[in-house]
Specification:
337 residues; 6 strands; disordered N terminus
């Protein structure tokens, strides 16, 4: 069995529509004698910060374009003082810290001053074999039959570590996930996993915004037969996957999430049928999930002391978490990294 086959449960989410950092089988590091979350005093980083402009509540529909950052200090309406501070962090699920241009010490310091970590999914959730239906096609020639032999051949060349027999079982979204994340699978370098381990070691409470099944259902919301044209059309220009991954990393390094969203929206190389499928996938993966998360995040962030870590693409856009929180009166300031 190839390495990707062994860890296929750990497929990263689409780089193009970054979804949650779940699907990992890794266990968090637990330190039995760590201080309990309720015993910790709330606080904020004492590290000197560069000047940043708070984003005030308002009705500017393009306000979300002004934010540049991936770590944001959040305070509720009328909130003052360290005890009302929380952090919202956008993660990327492939690439090293150097490639992401991250000072992880700053990120971990911010986490260490909080009482609670909130992420997308429980990375320790047991795998139910019934959930295979969200990521695997029936029959050994499922994907080959859906996208045709030439496209399947190109796919196999791009993913040499995945055997053709296994590759043919993947649904289109799962194959795209590997392609857009350079074939990388979940590992110890994943930021989401590192944050969970740090939180556990520090005795922070950990909460999740959705279940693994809910996440998989969002990934699989477009029927395979409708999503197959997206994969087939993108495989006509296979060299663009490497270019897309490189651009994604550059957008993250420069903290230009708005530019990244514009790139995602361009849907280059897709015809009308492909664009319709991608638009449906985006609604399921980003807008719908953001809308489900917001009431809970609103309540948590009003209490303060929360470190929220979600895929960076969830932060930006008119339906992004930053804009929706701004509209609810939260003060948001980008932290330098």
């Amino acid at each position: 069995m190839h390495v990707h086959e062994k860890r296929i449960m750990g497929l990263p989410m689409r780089a193009m529509a970054l979804i949650a950092g779940g699907l990992l089988g890794a266990a968090a590091l637990v330190v039995p004698d760590a201080p309990r979350a309720q015993d910790r005093e709330p606080g904020v980083m004492q590290r000197p910060r560069e000047p940043a402009v708070a984003q005030e509540a308002g009705h500017d529909p393009e306000a979300w374009r002004r934010w540049r950052g991936v770590l944001f200090r959040v305070q509720p309406p009328g909130g003052h003082g360290d005890d009302t501070v929380s952090f919202l962090f956008g993660t990327l699920h492939f690439g090293s810290a150097a490639e992401l241009g991250l000072d992880t010490d700053v990120v971990f310091e911010a986490l260490g001053h909080m009482r609670r970590l909130v992420n997308e999914v429980d990375n320790q959730a047991p795998w139910d074999p019934d959930m295979d239906r969200y990521r695997l096609l029936p029959g050994k020639d499922g994907l080959r039959a859906l996208i045709g032999a030439p496209a399947f051949g190109a796919l196999a060349q791009l993913l040499p570590d995945v055997s053709p027999a296994w590759l043919s079982r993947l649904k289109p979204w799962a194959a795209l996930a590997l392609l857009e994340a350079r074939g990388e699978t979940a590992g110890d370098q994943l930021l989401d996993l590192q944050l969970e381990r740090r939180a556990a070691a520090a005795g922070l409470a950990v909460e999740h915004l959705e279940t693994l099944r809910e996440q998989l259902a969002a990934l699989d919301c477009v029927p395979a037969v409708e999503h197959a044209p997206v994969l087939e059309q993108r495989l006509r220009t296979p060299w663009l996957f490497a270019e897309d991954s490189a651009r994604t990393l550059e957008y993250y390094r420069t903290r230009d999430l708005a530019g990244w969203m514009d790139d995602v929206d361009a849907m280059e190389g897709l015809d009308a049928r492909g664009r319709a499928a991608e638009q449906q996938a985006r609604r399921c993966l980003i807008e719908d999930r953001n809308a489900r998360w917001l009431p809970r995040l609103d309540a948590l962030l009003r209490r303060g002391g929360v470190f929220v870590a979600v895929g960076a693409i969830h932060l930006t856009g008119a339906a992004g978490l930053l804009e929706q929180l701004r509209r609810r009166g939260f003060s948001i300031v980008a932290e330098p990294l």
